[in-house]
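Go through this chain.

——
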Amino acid sequence: MATDDDDSPTGAYASQVADIIFAQPRDSTYVPPEPLELRVTNRRAIATLDELEPDERAQFVAMFRGEDAEQILRDGIEDFPIDLEVAHVVDDAGALRYRLYGWNFGVIYLMPPSGLDVVAFTSQHHLEHWSADLRPTFWAMDRALMRGDHGFQQSAEFCWWREECWERIKNLAPGTAYSEAHVRRFLRGD
């Protein structure tokens, strides 16, 4: 989330979005069958591809398939900076479970430690509900981000608490909810 002393247009926007997301009531009786505690660690602001770990680099370049990812980091998109940040998501034992990417204005990718099999995605802060299998992950990610001890600036709503979101997708065929099919095909280069 943006710091209070960031009075730039992007900082003000980020602050407002963060306030909205963190103020969401999480009134729900849902608890995952096997709760997993996650932590967001190793958060870094990235300015060049060389600053990315090899798996991060492969994933980020795939997110901009067909475009010059280095130039996007340097110049932004249509001259608007993306302010890329990347973090590790680890479990209680310190094992890397996910890689978290975020950039202006609300683009979030939750990726596996390696490979291009995207776990979750959004282009507007609110992670898409692709499968009921994601609910425990969303629960754990929301708890990790709510801790606020990680420095990750891009606000992300891993909405696990709204029953209607999960009801809406429960009978959909795998791979058909929202942008899932498109995002997966794009990352794979299909």
Remarks:
- The first helix runs from residue 9 to 23.
- Helices lie at 9-23, 54-63, 69-75, 135-146, 163-169, 180-188.
